[in-house]
Every structure is written in C-alpha cells, then in structure tokens.
Write a structure and sequence with these properties.
It comes from Devosia enhydra. InterPro entries: AB_hydrolase (IPR050471), AB_hydrolase_1 (IPR000073), AB_hydrolase_fold (IPR029058). GO terms for molecular function: triacylglycerol lipase activity. By secondary structure, this protein is of the alpha/beta class. The protein has a single domain, classed as Rossmann fold, CATH 3.40.50.1820. 33% of the residues lie in helices and 17% in strands. The protein has an eight-stranded mixed β-sheet with strand order 1-2-4-3-5-6-7-8, with helices on both faces. α1 links the parallel β3 and β4. α1 packs parallel to α8, α2 crosses α3 and α5 crosses α6. The longest helix is centred in the middle third of the chain and has 15 residues. The model has no long low-confidence stretch (mean pLDDT 95).
Length: 286
C-alpha cells in the first residue's frame, strides 16, 4: 500500500493505493459520510491482484482528509467531482475505471458525462440513476427514525456514537443472513479513531449543487456495471432497474437479500464480477 495526500481546491485529501497497475487504474469512490475504510481491504486487494492500481480515498469531512466544523459546508457536488479529477491528476492517471457506491455512484455518473475522457468505465454499487425518478425512492422508515436521532446524540460520548453508527450499519443491511456485526464494529472503531470529528462526516447531508438538465444517466457512453441488493433500504433496487432501462447495454449484478452494504461474504463474488466486467470493457494492454 502507498499513502499520498492530494491537494484539491484548497483542501487536502488522503489517498491510499494498492497494486502495480499494469492493466490500468480503478478509483473507488465511497458514499456519503463514509471514509475509505468502507471499501474492504479484501476487495481492494482482489482488484489489485487482477492487475490494477486501486486507489481509495477519504472524502472531505471524513478520515484524514480536510475536516470542517459540524454543520458547516463550503463545497458542493461539483467540488466533490473535482476531487476525483485532482486525485487522478496527482497520480498521473489520464483516465480510470470508476467504482462508486451510493453518493460515490452519483459523483461517478457526473464525472463520466462531464469529464468523459477521464472515465474508462463505471461501476455503480447501490446508486441512484442520475437525473431519473424511480419507484420506491426514499429511505426506509426505520433508517429515517435513526437519522432523526442525530440532533440528540451526545458526540462527546464515544460509546454512544459507536452504538449509533452500528445501528445505521445494522439497519442498512438486507434480510439475507450473514450481517457481520464484528466486522461492522471493527470498521466503526477504526473510523472513529482516525477522524478529527466524526460528527462532521454528516455535513454531507447538507450537500447541494444543481445538476445540469443534460446530465442524466442515459447520456453515459462508457461501459457500465450495476451492482445492487434487492433489499436496499436506502436506495431501492428499483433504482438499479431504472438505470438498466436507461442504459440497456449495462450489465447488472443482483445481490439477493442484500441491503445498502458491501457484505464481507460477498466480496469474492463482487471482486470477480468487477474484474470480469473490466476485462470486457478494457482488454489487457499490450
């Protein structure tokens, strides 16, 4: 692994890379409130073993990246898309395969259209289709209630914060057996230990930014793989179906009974599917 700090529009982003990259670069873009730790090491290592340089990073307000005060946000969606380009520039990558989860998938779609020359392919995990409405949008009531308790959370109580974050992870999981409680607790502990302000990660809820009318998922010209759980309580599986209708050439991997998560048990299958997809999208370089 190699660590690097990247400058982007006056802030600093922490990045970590795996692999040698003889087959190209994969940039992993996580969802809202989540640092790079939400990308399992095992997935990063599996993709790197396939011949790719794999880069993951801490979003603004998470991990070791620049973190502002809770409740204050001075950036928008376009700035976060700019972060992706800054990371590619720093690592001297002309174009990369983007893998985005949730908010990361939205940022990836914008980048794939507005900066098409920098994006070779796009994998969308538990992501909404850019610019399209779909049936069943909106969070499940239990998760809405959990997030509704944010205002009453005592952020100075580490145990209370860890319990709050664990409940989000539990409620985000689907109905399939295999929710790994210990893995979730380990990740949350590591996340809390490496941030200046865990509360500031929730600044992402304040994100704004107008998406131009022409920026819709149907305008994406690169190869696309959609990965989505059928029991996702944050972004319904119908979002994946809407993306597939808008992009008939897109491939889809359905995770039966999974939610808004990358379950450790699914990592081997997810890694293999992404590598197979990339092998078709960009054959081995001579």
């Amino acid at each position: 692994m190699a660590f690097a700090r990247v400058s982007s529009e006056g802030i600093t982003l922490a990045t970590e890379s795996f692999g040698s990259g003889e087959r190209g670069t994969i940039l992993l873009v996580m969802g809202a409130t989540a640092s790079m730790l939400w990308w399992p090491d095992t997935l990063c290592e599996a993709l790197a073993a396939g011949g790719y340089r794999v880069i993951r990073f801490d979003h603004r307000d998470t991990g070791h990246s620049t973190t502002g005060a809770p409740g204050e946000i001075a950036y928008d969606l376009d700035d976060m898309v700019g972060d992706l380009l800054a990371i590619l520039d720093h690592h001297a990558v002309p174009a990369a395969h983007l893998v985005g989860m949730s908010l990361g998938g939205l940022l990836g779609q914008i980048a794939a259209i507005a900066h098409a020359d920098r994006v070779e392919s796009l994998t969308l995990i538990a992501a909404e289709p850019l610019g399209l409405e779909y049936e069943g949008s909106g969070m499940a009531p239990a998760l809405l209630d959990q997030f509704g308790a944010l205002a009453e959370l005592d952020w100075s109580d580490a145990n209370a914060v860890a319990a709050f974050l664990f409940e989000i992870a539990r409620l985000s999981a689907g109905s399939a057996p295999g929710f790994d409680a210990e893995d979730a607790r380990r990740r949350i502990a590591a996340e809390m230990a490496r941030t200046a302000s865990m509360q500031s990660a929730f600044n992402h809820a304040l994100l704004k930014g107008d998406v131009a009318p022409g920026l819709t998922v149907g305008a994406i010209g690169q190869p696309v793989l959609v990965i989505h759980g059928t029991d996702d309580p944050v972004i319904a599986y119908a979002a994946a179906e809407a993306t597939r209708r808008a992009l008939p050439q897109a491939q889809i991997m359905t995770l039966e009974g999974r939610g808004h998560e990358i379950a450790p048990a699914d990592v081997p299958a997810i890694g293999a599917r992404i590598l197979a997809f990339l092998g078709e999208a960009a054959p081995p370089r001579s």
